[in-house]
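Sharing a chain and its predicted structure for anyone who wants a worked example. Both blocks are below, sequence first, C-alpha cells second.
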Amino acid sequence: MSELQLLRDPDIEPTSEIIAEALGSANTIYVGFMDDLKSYDVEVEWRYYNDGKAWLGKGLHKWMGARGGQKEVTVFWLSIWDGFFKTSFFIPEKVRTEVLDLPLGNDVKNRIADAKQMGKLKFFPLVFDLHASEALDDIYMLVSFKKTIK
C-alpha cells in the first residue's frame, strides 16, 4: 500500500463524503473515532496548512478558564491518507516518564522510549497509522493524558 497523503486541494474542504471516499474501508474506524472523541470533550477542526500543503484536523480540547476565558489545548493532529488516517501526538519531553507509566501496549511504550526529541523543540512525536481499530485503546489513553497537560 502506498503512503499517499490526500486532501491537498485548498479549495476542497474535507466533508464526510470526501473523507469516506479517501479512506475506503477505514472510514468505519474513522467515523467511530470521531463519535468516541465526543465523550473525551475533543473536537476536530479542519484547516488547510500552506506549509504542508494539506488539510489537517486539529483535535482540540476546549474548556472555560477560572476567569471565564475560553481555553484550549491541541491534543493531536489528524491527516487523511489513501486508505487510512494518521493521528500524530506531540508530547512534551518533560512528561515522557509519565507517559511511559500509562497502561499502554508494549509496542507503543517502546516507540515512546525510542522517540527522538524534535530538534530544539521540547517535544517528541508519536504517530499512529489507523487502518483498523487495534490502536484505538492506546490513542484514547493518550487523548485523556494530553488533556491534562496545560
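Comments welcome. The mean pLDDT is 94.
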